[in-house]
């Protein structure tokens, strides 16, 4: 499992180590380069001073010994001074046991190899045609560079473990809010879904805690809705089962064929109502789980025509008429599954048929207004009772208990409208205008093009 703590520890340790190696390498290169420049400058300076001294004095008379006696210092063997004739013969050499000239008779600084020893040589011509050579062995320069480098790197190596410890402490301290948030979440259960208060004051956790609190609020809302749905469904199903049992007992106790037939008819009607209730409960549960909504656009007119054709026998049996009045919606599409759109229209028309008296005209009007599809279902009923204002769409809420139904039709309609971002409103009968339910759905495609 991926661990942020382990990743940060290993990655930052590797970065520190790599940075140390890089810095060490750069310091070593820069220090070596500077040491070389400094020593070359000193070498040239000593050579010019010695050459000037030879030119201005009778010092050559003192140079009667080819090789000086034993050195007086251990590092003396790493430096050399030679006096060379114009023909390239060695006239004088310091005590480095050199019996040959260090380099060619070429003025300036050069690097020469003599007897497997590398020398930095400064050659200076004299006025009498002779040459003066001042040299330093590469070994002493390397030794000094290494000692300087060691002096620079040693403190870093000594401090590096303390840097790692400081890094571990900083990571532990910096990740403490995550650990405390984890502990706070671990102590919770499904009954404790209140908003988290810890972590909101930490900049890196603020957005995470805010979104987590939103999720907890949605989960709490879903659980509360499911509980209400379960309680309402259980109550309604218990009522239906009690009614079915009562009709069955009546049929069992019936003394005549007519009484038994009536009881069985009532039992059949109760079974039909129970089946319809269960079907709508399952459909409503799918809507609450948000698993039935699709985003594919669907044409409105074919669905309207099919629903009215399906509901026509029901309207005929109630001695009512159905009419469709579309206006500029032939090419209109909405982003809603066709089954859901049909269910929405079917429930609206079914309610209009149930709550309208015989001989009523039920009209479905469809228009487009500012990117919204207006579906208006007018009926011959009184409309939504005043005492139910604000409660339209509650589950198992029925306006007239003398009319058969489950009280779930408008709940399904409202949930579908919410799923697609639409609006629903109820208009009572007044001023000669029939009662109506108005649904507004966002339009995807109009006759004139894309919205």
- The top-level CATH class of the largest domain is Alpha Beta
Q: What letter string, H or E per element, gives the SSE order?
A: HEEEEEHHHHEHEEHEEHEEE
Average pLDDT confidence is 76
Number of strands: 13
First CA to last CA: what distance?
Answer: 48 Å
Beta fraction of the residues? Answer: 15-25%
Which structural class fits the helix and strand makeup? Answer: alpha+beta
CATH fold label of the largest domain:
Heat Shock Protein 90
Number of domains: 3
Task: Tell me, briefly, the overall form.
Answer: rod-shaped
CATH H-tier superfamily of the largest domain: Histidine kinase-like ATPase, C-terminal domain
Portion of residues within helices: 40-55%
Query: Rg, please?
Result: 51 Å
- Tally of contiguous helical segments: 8
In the CATH hierarchy, the architecture of the largest domain is: 2-Layer Sandwich
Q: Could you walk me through the main structural features you see in this protein, from its secondary elements to its overall organization?
A:
Helix 5 packs parallel to helix 8 and helix 7 packs antiparallel against helix 8. This protein has 3 domains: 153 residues, Beta-Lactamase; 83 residues, Helix Hairpins (Orthogonal Bundle); 157 residues, Histidine kinase-like ATPase, C-terminal domain (Heat Shock Protein 90). The C terminus is likely disordered. The strands form 2 sheets. Strands 6, 7, 8, 9, 10, 11, 12 and 13 form an 8-stranded mixed β-sheet that branches. The two termini are 48 Å apart. The chain contains 8 helices and 13 strands. By secondary structure, it is of the alpha+beta class. The chain is rod-shaped and about 155 Å long. The chain is 51% helix and 18% strand.
């Amino acid at each position: 499992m991926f661990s942020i703590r382990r990743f940060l520890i290993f990655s930052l340790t590797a970065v520190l180590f790599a940075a140390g190696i890089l810095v060490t390498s750069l310091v070593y290169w820069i220090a070596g380069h500077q040491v070389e420049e400094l020593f070359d400058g000193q070498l040239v300076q000593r050579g010019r001073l010695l050459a000037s001294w030879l030119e201005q004095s009778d010092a050559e008379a003192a140079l009667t010994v080819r090789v000086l006696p034993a050195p007086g210092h251990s590092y003396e063997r790493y430096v050399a001074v030679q006096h060379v004739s114009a023909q390239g013969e060695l006239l004088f050499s310091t005590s480095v046991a050199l019996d040959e000239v260090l380099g060619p008779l070429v003025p300036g600084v050069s690097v020469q190899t003599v007897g497997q020893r590398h020398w930095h040589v400064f050659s200076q011509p004299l006025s009498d045609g002779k040459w003066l050579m001042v040299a330093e062995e590469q070994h002493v320069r390397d030794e000094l560079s290494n000692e300087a480098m060691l002096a620079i790197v040693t403190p870093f190596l000594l401090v590096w473990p303390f840097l790692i410890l400081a890094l571990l402490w900083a990571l532990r301290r910096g990740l403490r809010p995550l650990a405390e948030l984890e502990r706070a979440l671990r102590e919770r259960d499904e009954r404790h879904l209140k908003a988290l208060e810890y972590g909101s004051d930490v900049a890196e956790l603020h957005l995470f805690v805010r979104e987590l609190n939103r999720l907890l609020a949605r989960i709490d809302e879903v659980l509360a809705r499911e509980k209400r749905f379960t309680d309402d469904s259980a109550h309604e199903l218990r009522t239906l089962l009690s009614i079915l049992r009562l009709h069955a007992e009546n049929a069992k106790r019936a003394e005549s064929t007519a009484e038994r037939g009536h009881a069985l008819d009532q039992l059949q009607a109760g079974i039909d109502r129970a089946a319809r209730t269960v079907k709508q409960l399952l459909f409503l549960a799918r809507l609450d789980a948000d698993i039935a909504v699709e985003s594919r656009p669907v044409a409105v007119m074919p669905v309207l025509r099919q629903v009215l054709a399906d509901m026509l026998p029901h309207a005929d049996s109630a001695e009512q008429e159905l009419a469709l009045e579309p206006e500029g919606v032939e090419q209109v599409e909405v982003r809603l599954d066709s089954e859901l759109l049909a269910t929405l229209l079917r429930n609206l028309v079914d309610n209009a048929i149930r709550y309208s008296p015989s001989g009523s005209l039920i009209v479905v009007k469809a228009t487009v207004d500012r990117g919204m599809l207006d579906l208006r279902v007018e009926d011959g009923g009184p409309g939504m009772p005043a005492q139910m204002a604000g409660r339209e769409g509650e589950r198992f809420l029925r306006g007239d208990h003398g009319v058969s139904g489950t009280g779930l039709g408008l709940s399904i309609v409202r949930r579908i409208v919410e799923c697609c971002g639409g609006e629903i409103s109820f208009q009572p009968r007044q001023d000669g205008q029939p009662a109506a339910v108005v649904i507004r759905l966002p339009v995807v495609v109009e006759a004139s093009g894309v919205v």
